[in-house]
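Before a colleague's protein record goes any further, I have to sign it off. Would you go through it and say whether the fold makes sense for this chain? Take the sequence as given and treat only the tokens as open to question. The record follows directly below this note.
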Amino acid sequence: MELILPHAPRAYDHVTPMAVGMIKTRRWDDPREADDGFRLLVCRYRPRGLAKVDETWDAWDPELGPSRDLHAAAYGKGVLQIPWPTYRVRYLTEMKRQRARIDRLAERVRAGETITLLCSSSCDRESRCHRSLLKELIEAALDGGPGE
């Protein structure tokens, strides 16, 4: 019996697709799930009063969180509170300086690892949280985009 292909054989027909991991977002105090993979805390500040033994993350990178000034502006601490569109633009601008960190996370996901980005326990609206913006930046880096 002759095998009939729907197209002429191509040089890459034998290539197995590369496994790509996932990027998840959660709050740091959400219970760990089996598919969380590497849990990265991306808050500017470490949760207060939490013993090291009670940490729910594998690593903390405060440089992927908003700057101290942007964090204060988001909550109206000592300055006028800024609206989400302004926060979004400022955070994305700040993250241009973190391109190498973002690219390293994208490489890990490209290699098949799952990364869960963790934010504050009080941050219950993911769509208005920097972790969702950071996820978009990592996804853009995966796609070879500018990451902004």
